[in-house]
Design a protein that fits this description.
45% helix
């Protein structure tokens, strides 16, 4: 059983949704990234998405755009992101690690070489935001050969044909985008999310995870009530880092994740605005 499958099985047995935490690799610095990932894990994150900085992040809101730009200005590359995965594994981190980003850096690196390096470093899967399922066969084959999951995204605007296609191709889990828009913490989940989730659930038995706009414990509880198997929190975590003193970032990230998982009362500072 893969680390991703085992994680969802454990969360299911414990009667809770899995928490998937997103962090831009190289933000606020490459050196700080491993400590922040460990802080996410200590807080209760079940798996971590490491964002690969990219110059044209069309699906990202202003918060993750700022983080990615800061990383790019420091010269962070896809190779650096792979090195972070390897470093985290050498330090004993056991939770699943996903590399999330856009196809251009993978293409520039060389898809076969990138997938091989991701597997060798200890990665568990890829999320390629702008790769349509109709054009994913090459990368999917490379991932399958290396026992990596290629995670597909579906949006509320996805039609039945697209949903069925993703259900046939997907492994690991399916990422259900909550809104037809960009990333960014929001006050409430969209009213049509439950119907969208039911439509996807009709096509697959894979775990379903919701992302885009998740920032509060009540969002995660609402997602679980809809039958979702997990939730992704990204922009809100970046906001915590951005508004924390350098020497307190890891502690504040851990405390924030503890609130999201219900291990801590919501009395810590939370930054869940769009900024």
């Amino acid at each position: 059983m893969s680390r991703i499958a085992a994680t969802f099985a454990r969360a299911r047995a414990e009667g809770r949704p899995a928490l998937v935490a997103f962090l831009t690799a190289g933000y606020p610095s490459l050196g700080a990234t491993p400590a922040l990932v460990h802080a996410l894990a200590r807080g209760g994150a079940d798996m971590v998405e490491l964002g690969i900085p990219f110059s044209d992040p069309l699906a990202d809101g202003v918060t993750i755009q700022r983080a990615g730009l800061a990383a790019l200005r420091q010269g962070v590359t896809a190779a650096d992101c792979l090195s972070v995965v390897g470093e985290l594994r050498s330090q004993g981190l056991e939770i699943p690690l996903l590399l999330m980003g856009y196809y251009n850096p993978i293409l520039a690196y060389g898809p076969e070489a990138f997938v091989a390096a991701a597997a060798a470093a200890g990665g568990d899967g890829l999320i390629v935001v702008d790769l349509p399922p109709e054009e994913s066969e090459g990368l999917r084959g490379l991932c399958r050969a290396r026992d990596l999951d290629l995670i597909y995204l579906l949006a509320p605007t996805s039609g039945r044909e697209r949903i069925d296609r993703v259900a046939r191709l997907a492994s690991g889990f399916i990422y259900c985008v909550s809104v037809a828009g960009v990333t960014g913490a929001r006050a409430d989940l969209p009213p049509g999310l439950a119907a969208f989730v039911r439509e996807v659930r009709d096509s697959t038995g894979l775990p379903l995870v919701v992302g885009f706009g998740i920032s509060r414990r009540e969002h995660i509880e609402a997602a679980a009530a809809m039958g979702l198997d997990g939730a992704v929190v990204g922009s809100a975590i970046i906001n915590v880092i951005e508004h924390s003193d350098t020497h307190q970032q890891a502690d504040e990230v851990r405390e924030y994740v503890e609130v999201l998982t219900g291990h801590r009362r919501a009395n810590v500072r939370q930054h869940d605005g769009m900024g």
